[in-house]
TrEMBL record, chains A, B:
It holds the Pfam family GH123_cat. It comes from Panicum virgatum (Blackwell switchgrass). Residues 391-611 form the Glycoside hydrolase 123 catalytic domain. Residues 1-25 are annotated as: Disordered. This is Glycoside hydrolase 123 catalytic domain-containing protein. Residues 1-18 have a biased composition (Polar residues).
Length: 657, 657
């Protein structure tokens, strides 16, 4: 045996460190009973657990988690503590309730079901935040194993199933209306172990029993059915016979509990909740700041019209198609997002439009003047077919829109990431056309490099920085990929130095496939603060708008409830911020991702930072980011939630009137 | 900007390789519609899917996987192919059916339910393997995210739920009885999308409806109840009135389907299955080899009696306690395992016993002479309290047992991994006592090093190898940890060289915390072939027995259905090969892990290899392992299933009569 092997093959110090496990007291960490289950007494016994008699605290762990936590199925329990939240008016603040069974109390293959009931939140002056209107519950469903989809819980039957050895999470959102009086609102969430519907199967009438009942009722009716009776004796016999049949039916085991109970057995009564429910106390401070209805920073997000057409089997231009687009538009507005529909042509030509109706349609005005919309894309129709009709129609659109007050929100998005001089020329040609209709049109161009084939600059970064020189006056919104910056925040000044704000030029940014971890982005599997930090980054770098390419760009499918597949070659979650509701239930309502909620939170954070800066100056705002440890740079931001609440609390304390 | 940054911050070749994604045709792998859903036509439409009219193939992916595959929730679909299996008589052969929804057809929060129905397997000569007796279905349930627990599927309602974006697996086992005639058995498994019980909620009678029905039946009975009638008219009126009530009851919407159907609506009719089910064809070759009822290699596995006492709230020595132990003993026998119950004392003293009853109890003879039991542990009672009574009782036990034919299977397991001279002395003292009762007692001692504090040998490995010199004649079964060998198979000869087979000395091995990946062991998260290879290793190294410390050594709990926690400090799954059934359903039957099934498969492989070697010699047996690529060494064995079937097929071809 070689000397070098003695360590790996046997004994000595190495060995006693990795001594095999033992069960006895001598075994230290491996010894039996090391972790105590923490069960109250031994009241549960060895039989089937009667959840109505046992405190839910003995059946499951309940604890709260912040909205930036990715609560995985393996998440370990923590102590249950009161949840204290802060929110402005017109703000949504969310947190999560994590649930993990300690034991199984169901007999149908799951650990058990829990009912989650929330009280209204009430202030001492009698104001309320009402459950289901202002308080919503959603189940956090894993996508590719990562907690992401937020599937609404039916308010009429607010139950979820728990599985053995798995932590589940419920996403609780509090939506504070614009007119909500400031104050401290308090309420409770009752979490109660219940029987599942499958467990109570024996209590409901199975099909075979219903057939029996049906047959007996029919035969009873045959007996009593009016006819010509031969004698009173026959009638007595018939009545007796019917009575016998009826008594047999009443003896049906499935009806036995009906005679004992008052008929309201399904309702959970307040006493029961007080006695057996886990109670999560919740307090929300609503303060006297109202988030502006129109987001301070326009964030324009794409919705693929082709994906909607395919998945929902809708023909372009039909009533159903308009309804579907309308539904998506309205639904996305709640996230402080300005949606645009889009369709890609060849060579990254793009047709982007916020409103599917023409400018002279009443819906167009409704869309464009919606105060929640911070920016809107005007369709450049000739991008699809460059006919005279298309050009005329475009001219008419601009004519109508440019006279409206909302025209300042309008932009054209013509080309996604032009790469060469030929594509730059196309943009310039279109720009010339558009500016002939209205000299103040705003054209948005996304890019991450300079045009290839030009001698713009000696280095690729310089070529990128000099793009405004090439696209002026054909682009007003220079929208660059955060990926180009990498972790070099200092490069921002090089980009901005090339812009002419005096000509109305703006710098916007975007993320998509890049940047990747550890920088902020919205890919599945990134940390929650990493998702939220995309908007922190935007605010710190000083861009005045943001673009995201797609919110519903999953793989092609021709059925609403088809499995959601991410597109090949893209990081999971890229281009997908919500899911079709049909995949998870019979609902047609889109299902938000946790990432979309974190985008909303980031957009709200921007309003806090803007408020603070408006009082104390931008330098102080930047200092606040730094001193709370919330965001210092693209690779230096908080991984935990704490600093987020510290920042928000500081803005509250220093800006409340 | 520094030169070193130019690559990360911008442009050039690097950049075009990681160009952001696009939706158009130009986007290559990221382009829209790249992966086609593979749906048959567009028959599904945009509405709620009627699963009875749509072929299940359009609703879900079905494919088979070998028993050594860990089918995760993210497992990607494969084509469905016929399953061809080979099994001897008295053998269990298993495979898995993987299922993944293509769409959601349920409306209750899951993608949908599937029914899995298996036909009997029939041979052309009319012999059968009968469903539920010889063919069983179990759901593969993740433990810590790893597919491991095999929860039986109710044969009366063989349904499982599928979740959006998740692959589920069903473990199918074919148990070939000893007397099964050899031949080719064929059958089919029908996988059919069905409504869930929750979906059909409206079809069953909800509680409120049952109350209504109950009240109406009662009032109808009040009408017909025999009494003194004043007149025939009253009777007519009563009959009429009863009829009216009965007709109203028959109009109850919940009973409407009863009049249309034949009363067998719950049964899936063969036509339906033929038309809409996915059919998995299954063929099993049963060959004319019968695995010996008594395993050729004794594999002794511990069951913690303390864990059973705690979890099932049983007092030591009560009737329930004996029942529980008996239940565990019988259940484990099916895995070609020889169980022993155990309890640890101080300093790794161990009380190990196979039968909880004394030797003069009828049950003792039943246990010890069970042909499936290859070895049994005789309790050395004085290990707990060294009283005269204990010593006398022990002497009586040995007196009785040594006269029985099964005495050759007996062994004493006194101490787990003695570490120092003092502990060695204890073993020698006990041995002296035992040998005074019967000179041919066999004592098993586990160890992974030589005694500390002795001058046995200059190196730790040599001290380990020389242990037999210290323990002779006080140990006959020298049971060493595979961890000591590491990947050095050649060290086996050093161990074996020290043994005296002429004195009945044997070499056994064990695994526990070590060895770790990539060597074979039974930890959760290892590959399936890695689990199965533990027994391949034993056979190749030539040990004549095997020991495993614990099968049920999860963390302490005082409730049968309490969450299963692995003990701290142990690799997940170590010491836990099955789970309490109560965690997953109302069943009291233990739930096997996939690892336990793979242990059985490995034990069965040993019988194949032994048969082959008995015909062609051990060298040829070793050559078979090598040429099939199944097992070459502790870090060189197949990761895929293929070679396992090749080895088995080769044994079949060359050994069938």
């Amino acid at each position: 045996m070689e000397p070098g092997d003695s360590n790996s093959a046997a004994g000595g110090k190495t060995q006693s460190a990795s001594a095999p496990p033992v069960e006895g007291v001598a075994g230290g960490g491996t010894s039996y009973g090391w972790v105590d289950g923490g069960l109250r007494g031994t009241s549960l016994g060895a039989g089937v657990i009667d959840h109505t008699k046992v405190h839910s605290e003995d059946l499951l762990h309940v604890w709260s988690m912040p909205s930036t936590a990715n609560v995985s199925q393996q998440e370990a329990p923590r102590p249950l503590e009161k949840v204290n939240l802060l929110a402005a008016r017109n703000e949504r603040e969310s947190f999560q309730i994590a649930l993990r069974p300690k034991v199984s109390w169901s007999t149908s293959g799951i650990a058990g079901s829990v009912q989650i009931q929330c009280t209204d939140l009430c202030s001492s002056s009698g104001d309320r935040l009402v459950v289901d209107q202002s308080i919503t519950l959603r189940r956090v469903v894993p996508i590719l194993g990562v907690p992401d989809a937020l599937v609404p819980i039916d308010p009429l039957s607010p139950q979820i199933s728990l599985y053995p050895g798995e932590t589940a999470a419920v996403w609780v959102s509090l939506n504070v209306p614009c007119g909500q009086p400031p104050g401290l609102y308090e309420g409770e969430i009752f979490i109660t172990a219940v029987k599942t519907e499958l467990d109570s199967r024996t209590e409901s009438l199975p099909k075979s029993e219903r057939y029996r009942l049906y047959r007996e009722l029919r035969s009873c009716l045959d007996i009593t059915e009016p006819r010509d009776y031969s004698s009173p004796e026959e009638m007595v016999q018939r009545l007796t016979s019917a009575s016998t049949t009826l008594r047999r039916m009443l003896d049906n085991p499935a009806l036995q509990d009906c005679q004992e109970s008052n008929g309201f057995g399904d309702m959970m009564d307040e006493d029961v909740m007080n006695n057996v429910s886990v109670r999560l106390k919740l307090s929300l401070t609503v303060w006297d700041f109202t988030l502006p209805v129109t987001p301070s920073l326009p964030a324009v997000f794409g919705i693929s019209e082709t994906v909607i057409e395919d998945r929902f089997c809708l023909e372009h231009g039909t009533e159903g198609w308009y309804d579907a687009l309308d539904h998506h538009f309205r639904w996305l507005l709640q996230f402080r997002i300005s949606p645009f529909f889009c369709r890609w042509g060849d060579s990254m030509r793009i047709l982007a439009y916020t409103c599917p109706w023409p400018a002279d349609h009443p819906k167009a005005n409704e869309y464009y003047s919606d105060p929640r919309l911070a920016a809107y894309a005007v369709p450049y129709a000739p991008i699809l077919s460059c006919t005279d009709a298309a050009k005329n129609s475009l001219r008419r659109e601009v004519e109508i829109l440019k006279s409206k007050p909302h025209w300042s929100k309008a932009y054209f998005y013509l080309w996604d990431e032009p790469l060469n001089v030929e594509q730059y020329d196309m943009i310039c040609n279109i720009s010339n056309e558009l500016r002939s209709y209205s000299p103040d049109v705003r054209i948005l161009t996304t890019y991450y490099c300079g045009p290839s084939g030009s001698e713009l600059a000696p280095s690729t970064f310089e070529a990128f920085v000099k793009v405004p020189n090439v696209l002026r006056p054909h682009t007003q919104i220079f929208c660059t990929s955060e990926w180009v910056l990498g972790t070099r925040e200092d490069l921002v000044k090089d980009i901005v130095a090339e812009l002419r704000p005096d000509l109305g030029e703006e710098w916007w940014t975007y993320v998509c496939m890049g940047p990747s971890d550890p920088q902020p982005n919205w890919h599945l599997g990134m940390r929650g603060t990493q998702h939220r930090a995309v908007m922190w980054r935007v605010w710190k770098e000083g861009g005045t708008g943001f673009l995201y390419w797609g919110t519903n760009c999953y793989e092609k499918a021709m059925i609403p409830s088809a499995e959601i597949c991410f597109r090949r070659g893209l990081p999971p979650g890229d281009g997908v911020l919500f899911y079709p509701g049909e995949v998870f239930s019979s609902s047609h309502e889109p299902v938000a991702s946790t990432r979309l909620e974190r985008i909303l939170s980031g957009m709200q954070d921007i309003e806090y930072l803007k408020l603070y800066s408006s009082r104390y100056g931008r330098e102080e705002g930047l200092a606040l980011l730094e001193k709370t440890g919330m965001y210092l740079g693209p690779d230096r931001y908080t991984l935990d939630h704490g600093p987020v609440d510290v920042m928000r609390g500081e803005v509250y304390r220093s800006c409340r009137s």
